[in-house]
Amino acid sequence: MSAPAISVIERALAGFKPEDHGLPADFILTKLTAMKGCGCKVPREVLLELLKTFDDGSMVIDNDAGVGIGLDSCVVPLRHKGLNLVQTTDFFYPLVDDPYLMGRITAANVLSDLYAMGVSECDNMLMLLGVAVELDGVARDVIIGQFMQGFKDNADMAGTKVRGGQTVRCPWLLLGGVASSVAADDEIIRVDQAKPGDVLVLTKPIGGQVAVNSYEWLKKKTGRVEELGLDECKILKAFQQVTVQMCRLNRNAAKLLHKYQAHASTDVTGFGLLGHADNLARAQKEQVQFVIEHLPIIEYMDEIATKMPNGNGFNLFTGTSAETSGGLLIAMSLENAAEYIREIEMLDGFPAWIIGRVEATSGNRGAVISPDRQIHSVSSSIHQQLN
Question: For the chain, N or C: smaller number of CB within 10 Å?
Answer without folding.
Answer: C
